[in-house]
Design the sequence.
């Protein structure tokens, strides 16, 4: 048990140390506005776009001819998604206090911007444009149904830029119970796995 706790604690300390180093560079990175500007979503719009993110990326995969804007929006969104730990941390989307909420705004805003760009560059009547329009209609209907445009949070008025990556607020993780619990669970599983692997050779030798 002591061994498991030691591994778990070491894991958490390593995450927070690396996070603190990344956090030190956070403000400087966000000051770069040399890339493509990305309009922010409201908190309610973000939740709707999250539900359709997979379908938007499926349409993007069908885009035969790409341009720089398309590639930069897609790359930015994918990197931001990874920074946000692929949306796996509880509360990332809906909890304004989550250390991962701002970076979630960033990758989902980029996802919507990508859809808007694809809509603009594909000719009217083309098969891909027709599918894009159908998806946009469904998204619009869901936003109206959920009153998404009226749900605001502190990051709703913050525009993003492909030149400025938004990292999670790692310093706040120990003070946000759902996030802390998620990392503690991961650390515990790693500790248990390590202990299980360590016991296997002993059992073979005993046999």
Sequence:
């Amino acid at each position: 048990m002591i061994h498991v706790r030691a591994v778990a604690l070491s894991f958490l300390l390593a995450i927070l140390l690396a996070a603190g180093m990344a956090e030190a560079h956070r403000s400087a990175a966000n000051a770069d506005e040399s890339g493509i500007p990305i309009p922010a979503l409201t908190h309610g719009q973000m939740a709707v776009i999250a539900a359709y993110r997979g379908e938007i990326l499926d349409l993007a995969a069908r885009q035969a001819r790409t341009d720089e804007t398309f590639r930069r929006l897609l790359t930015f969104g994918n990197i931001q998604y990874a920074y946000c730990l692929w949306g796996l941390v509880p509360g990332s989307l809906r909890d304004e206090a989550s250390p991962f909420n701002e970076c979630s705004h960033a990758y989902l805003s980029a996802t919507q911007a990508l859809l808007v760009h694809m809509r603009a560059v594909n000719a009217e009547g083309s098969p891909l444009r027709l599918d894009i329009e159908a998806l946009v209609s469904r998204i619009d209907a869901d936003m109206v149904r959920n009153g998404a445009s009226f749900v605001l949070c502190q990051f709703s008025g913050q525009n993003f830029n492909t030149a400025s990556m938004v990292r999670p607020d790692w310093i706040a993780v120990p003070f946000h119970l759902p996030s802390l619990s998620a990392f503690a669970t991961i650390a515990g599983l790693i500790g248990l796995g390590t202990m299980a692997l360590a016991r296997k050779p002993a059992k073979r030798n005993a046999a």
Confidence is low (pLDDT under 50) at residues 1-29, 203-207.
